[in-house]
Amino acid sequence: MNWTILQWVLLLASAGKIHSRALRFTVLEEQEAGVKFGSLSTTYSAPYRLLNERYIRVDESSGDLFTKERIDRETLCPSKQDGNCTFSNTAVVSLNYEVVPMIIVVDDINDNAPIFERNVIPLHIPEDASIGTAFPLDDQAQDKDTGDNGTIRYYLEDSGGFFSIRQDGHELELVVQRELDREIQENHLLVLLAVDGGSVPLSVTANLSVTVTDVDDNCPEFDADSPTTAIVPALGVKGTAVAQLKATDKDLGQNAQIAFSFSRQISDRAKALFHMDGHTGLISLAVDAQVDSPEEHTLKVFANSPLCPPAQTQVTVYMQPVTSPEPSVKIKFVAEHKNQVIVLQENEPPTVLALLELEDTSTANGTLSLDKDSMPFSLKPQAGSYLLSTSKPLDFEMCSEYEVTVIISDPHGTRLHRREVIKVLVEDVNDNAPKFEQTRYEKDIRENNEPGVFLLRVQASDADSQQFGKVRYGLSNEGPFRIDEETGVISVVESLDREQQETYVLTILALDGGEPSQEGFATVSVNILDLNDNPPTFPTPHFYFFVSESLPQLAQVGKVTASDSDEGENGRIVDVRILNDEVPFAIDLVQGSLRSTGEVDREKQDRYELLVVAVDGGSPVLSATAKMTIFIEDVNDNQPRVLLPSSNLSCLTISPATRAGSMITKIYAIDEDSGMNSDITYQIIATKPTLHSPFQIDQHSGNITLVQHLRGEDYGMHHLFIVVRDGGKPDPLQSTVWVNLLVNETLEKCHVNAVPDYSPPPLPPPMPVKDCRCESNAWLIFYCGLCLMVISVCVLLAVVVVFMKHRKTKRKVEKKDVWETGNLCELKPLN
């Protein structure tokens, strides 16, 4: 087919029928197939055909152009992002096969969001960058759309006021807005937002990570814990550390390097005794040092850094002289001890700990005493020695370790020889029960929770140590709750239902690690908060009511109530209404009842099928519906309506030869009521003339029959005044009608010109309804009953005879009685 068309094109080209001017059409990209975007019929006549139908098609008769498939401009023209995207086609039109070139321009829509190549864009800015300095951002977003759809604007978020974004054409720069300080904040994480210019803009974000680089803008400072005093013991050895100085510079790398040095103002003696390590700040002995008397040296030290004034500090060094031996204390432990440390359990009564002996290596005597802060201990002389003991029971929880200071002085207390420290460790015993932070917790949780949800964490502490103070948790009544033995975290393992239980009281048990363990208790009251998870409910899904059609307006039909097992607003019924439109009933919300709002007529509608809805006040709102059937009971509010005869002036001609018993005509009436109220009877009240009428009416069927042969005196017009009654109680309703019968030899149609002038007496009461079947079967029933009575008497007499004969054989002395019995049998013919 294409080869044939090509041949036609070549043929037409050679014939000069190819138009040099191309038609231009525009179509939006991403259109559904079958969208019309132009027509060839405005310029050329049918038929129409296309050489290529890849993207578009043409209706051969109308010339309308339609899309054949979705056209993606970015796929069709990937290299023409900023210009028009077009494709060509050729149409063959009219009966002369004219060739028309076409150019279809694909217009862009905003179907591509901007894209960053990297999710995180790094940028380094020195901390001394001045305010207003701009740093170019090479990582810009790209958008495949064109025009406004491909124009991108940038915004900066989470900058904290330090930076702003500046866009100048295609240049994007980050501008410093506040002073930067690497030592305060080294990294700034910003959000760069790119938004295109479409009518419905699309956007993308990237994280802009700004690292503030260091400059040498901080000077060294000596640390607060750098030593200011030092003691050099007697017989100091060369290289012994005297003091370790500490200084810091907040900068990084080379900018943070510090050089330590002595001031030139220190004494020559100090310069000879001490050495300063310029890198570490360590002061050590430069020579072996031994002095006969105490010496004190003040060392002034500098911490130097480039471009900074030196930081300085001062260290005072005390040199101790070599002294002669002084008195010492020999300790003989009485209580348990480990590595020269006394170990005593808490709560022990006052106990002797050790025997202290003074070893005097000189000619001077000494005495022992306790430092004033060595409480609760006492030291008592005992036969040249001293007894060290506790003065009261020790409590581990108050203090677990004591340092008892023993002072050695001369007998007069004027010279202090030395101090001796004796350590006493107090061992813990399990004398404390765990204690909760609070003895009662209260927690609220909404019902219908997810199983395993966190409720709360309880915490108990034990003043004892180690194993004695390790607390485990438990629940005495778990139910739907669990507690983590180690952490005290209470979780809810089941979904709770407030309608089943509103409050749970948990008893939390805390056990320590002693043997036996001690216990602590706390209670947790868990209140289940209500959710609107229960819709209203009616007491029955289907209400049935029976009302009389004479029901007055606003009368109560019956109770219609609804309940909701939720609480508060969730359980409050805010509305109960009937969904049916235009019904004579409404719900009384105050009384909770159904009431009539209009007239009901059984003859128009004998029942109402309603749908009632109950709505609660929760959020979200829940509702429930129930059916309601209202049966309308009949009242006798419609009198019988006579359909036949249709008028009081109707007339019927009867031949005198009509046989007795023939049906002459029929009265037909209807009553729109139901039941007994629509049970119709017919009765002839009067006749004109007043002579005995030869006609009779069946009170049930309304059939009028001839009850006797017509005679000469019966000739002429007979007017029958008939009452039609219904069976309503207590007062039936009735209608009347005249039946006009003409007895005549000729059967010509008769006419009645006026209703007979007749005033009937008060209407008699309705005739009792007779059951013809009972009258016709009365004699049959009588004879059947009589036969049954005779049979019953005979059976009775036979039983009596058998009984008497049996007695006769046993008791012959009662013959007289038997004879009387025989006389009784002779009475049988009387029946």
UniProtKB/TrEMBL annotation:
Report the Gene3D superfamilies cross-referenced here.
Cadherins
Q: Which residues form the Cadherin domain?
A: 48-116, 117-222, 224-352, 377-436, 437-538, 539-642, 646-758
The UniProt entry, under PROSITE patterns, shows: CADHERIN_1 (PS00232), CADHERIN_2 (PS50268)
A Pfam family per the record:
Cadherin_2
Gene Ontology BP term (one)? anatomical structure morphogenesis
What is the membrane topology listed in the Swiss-Prot or TrEMBL record?
Single-pass type I membrane protein
InterPro entries per the UniProt record, alphabetical: Cadherin-like_dom (IPR002126), Cadherin-like_sf (IPR015919), Cadherin_CS (IPR020894), Cadherin_N (IPR013164), Protocadherin/Cadherin-CA (IPR050174)
- Report TM segments: 778-803
Which key words are in the record? Calcium, Cell adhesion, Cell membrane, Glycoprotein, Membrane, Repeat, Signal, Transmembrane, Transmembrane helix
* GO CC terms: plasma membrane
Q: In the record, which residues are listed under signal peptide?
A: 1-20
**Where, per UniProt, does this protein localize?**
Cell membrane
What GO MF terms are annotated?
Answer: calcium ion binding
PANTHER family for this protein: CADHERIN-87A, PROTOCADHERIN 20
Q: What is the name of the protein in this document?
A: Cadherin domain-containing protein
